[in-house]
Amino acid sequence: MADTDDRRHAEGMRTRRAVLGDAHVDRAEANRTEFDTDFQRFITEGAWGSVWSRPGLTRRERSLITIALLAAGGHHEEVAMHVRATRNTGASAEDVKEALLHVAVYAGVPAANSAFRIAKETYAALAAAERKGEAR
Question: pLDDT tens digit string along 14-42?
């Protein structure tokens, strides 16, 4: 079982890095403590190794589903993180806009309104960093 968990963790880490970027994962790993080590392993194996690594959907599709679900749940920091990740998943700003319109219909206008604001701020920050030649 440990061998399977180790393989799932390694696959999850590869997928997590491919989607969120090395800088994000390196920061998360550097900030990991004894308190959250088990949680970090859980999300790497579960979310990234078991779900995001499955072949049934593309990373673009998973990205859009994730953004919509996070927006519907009001998970603002995670919305911004996954909007930034669209640079790596192939989801365009137009794709995100369409997903957030679905949020408005199926989860409520206030949730979509917040998510649109967060996406706009995130895209603006990405564009500003790009103009400065910074990687974010």
Answer: 999 999 999 999 999 999 999 999 999 99
Rounded to the nearest integer, the mean pLDDT of the chain is: 95
- 71: CATH: 1.20.1290.10
Does residue 87 sit in the same domain as residue 32?
no
50, 62: one domain: no
End-to-end CA distance of the chain: 37
The pLDDT of residue 136: 52
Distance CA 130, CA 26 (A): 21
Structure tokens at 71: 């927006």
- Are 90 and 127 within one domain? yes
Based on the fold, state whether residues 74 and 102 are members of the same structural domain.
Answer: yes
**101 shares its domain with 136:** yes
Cα separation values, 108 from 61, 65, 85, 101, 111, Å: 21, 16, 24, 10, 6
C-alpha 61/C-alpha 116 separation (Å) is: 19
Tokens of 6: 């180790």
